[in-house]
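Section 5.1 Outputs to date
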Amino acid sequence: MIVVSADGLQDQLDALTELERDMIPYAVSTALTKTAQGLMGRLQDEMRSVFDKPTPYTLNSLRLMPATKDKLSARVWFKNEADGAQPASVWLAPEVYGGDRRNKPAELQLRAKGILPAGMYVVPGDGAELDAYGNIKRGQIIKAMSGVSGFSQAGYKANATDSKRSVRKANAKSYFVMRRGSEPIGIAQRTGWGKGSRAEVKMILAFVAKPRYGERLSFFQIAEQYTNEHLPREFDSAMETVRRRFAARSRRG
């Protein structure tokens, strides 16, 4: 998390009159919040640069905690909550600090079912259908996991069964765990079914060794540079606004 504080405003604060010092809490809190807002936009631009086709979910993963007159610091970090997915603070942290990629929900479920070996992770196979952002389509993931009974939550109804509905889907017949010898190497799909035709096989989800990330998003370096450059001018702008309001109020009084 980056904290934008008033530490970089000492030159401006030293030059203020006694009357202007009474205006400081409002001006500082405004400057801190506006600087943090601008920093979020700068970090989003950096994401577009360093990530390949970042999704809107990635670009909107930042959260701003604005400053107030009583709390003179603004904070920017990744969101810690998510709706049906991992929080951004979990899966984007390796991009900031480097290190191992965190487990995705599908990996946790496949591992719990004994399908994905310990220490292995899932990536799109050569036969995966990718969306505009280069990610495997959610519908295909669900079909593949359903076909190999890969869902582990109690009460989850997506696993293929012998019911008429599942038979019509043909998930259980189409998808299977591909092995090299006795070692699982992925989830594959049989295609080209039909009278007189031979089924073809394509890999949908490939099992690979744990991916490791280097630091790609220079979060803290960008934040420090942006804050040093923009906070003083935001403070000057906020003080000018306060001065105009005070002058107008004085004329009316």
